Amino acid sequence: MVFHFDQINAAFIFNGIWVTLKYTLLSALVGYTWGSVLALIKISRSRILRGAAWFYTSIFRGLPLILTLSLIYFATPQLTGYEITALQAGIITFGLNSAAYISETIRAGILAVDKGQREAALALGVPYKRMMLNIIFPQAFKNVLPAMVNESIALLKDSALVSTIAVADVMRNAALVGSDTYLYFEPLIIAAAIYYTMVMTLTLCANLLERRMRRSD
User: How far apart are CA 163 and CA 185, in angstroms?
Assistant: First the structure.
């Protein structure tokens, strides 16, 4: 078995790292923000709002992510006349999809916080918004941090789907190098090493954050 890494334009593949990270970070911003709002809606007293939030979650749980991406990217111009960009389509798809799962994680974390603290805060006259931001959310975040890290890792890997709409990310660049050289093993192994390194870096940073939060208890 002979490998031909010397014939592979590795720099071209590495150029896709920034694109991958851009989609991941922007989608995470949308997903975590909207997911937090959804979590609050799911524990609200309004049955209508709770029902709408649960229906929203069921849609993104029930559809393959690549189908959602295709619908948003290819169908939006047909339905609205607006030529959506690949970046917009990717961020909307990954952000909304991630929010559905993040909302469940945050909801579970909020409900896991001792009810006595909530009742004590309300008895002391602490406004609901300040109570959630300063008391409930910090404790819930500690409880769900591992699950949030897993969701971030999944988002990072799912971002490779943008290669299907011709975005020059790591996966797309590796495929282009393969089609140009007729060597597919080497560029794909390089892409795999890049994704593995990014995932392990994210995991390490999360572990350091978790240890620091435990020390602050």
Answer: 18
Listed as own residue / partner, the contacts of 66-70 with beta carbons closer than 8 Å and 24 or more positions apart are 66/161, 66/164, 68/93, 68/96, 68/97, 69/93, 69/161, 69/162, 69/164, 69/165, 70/164, 70/165
Assess contact for 41 and 100: CB atoms under 8 A. no
Please provide the DSSP assignment of 68-116 as one string: HHHIIIIIHHHHH-----HHHHHHHHHHHHHHHHHHHHHHHHHHHS-HH
What average pLDDT does the chain have?
90
Contact 170, 20 (CB under 8 A): yes
Quick count: other Cβ atoms within 10 Å of Cβ 182? 8
- How distant, in Å, are the alpha carbons of 49, 102, 171, 176, 201 from that of 204? 38, 21, 23, 31, 5
Amino acid at 183: L
Of the ranges 2-11, 30-39, 118-127, which one carries the lowest mean pLDDT score?
A: 118-127
Residue 66, pLDDT score: 95
Write phi, then psi, for 182 (nearest 5 degrees): 60, 25
**C-beta neighbour count of 38 within 10 angstroms:** 22
C-alpha 72, offset from chain centre:
17
pLDDT digit string, tens, across residues 122-152? 777 778 777 777 778 777 887 888 888 899 9
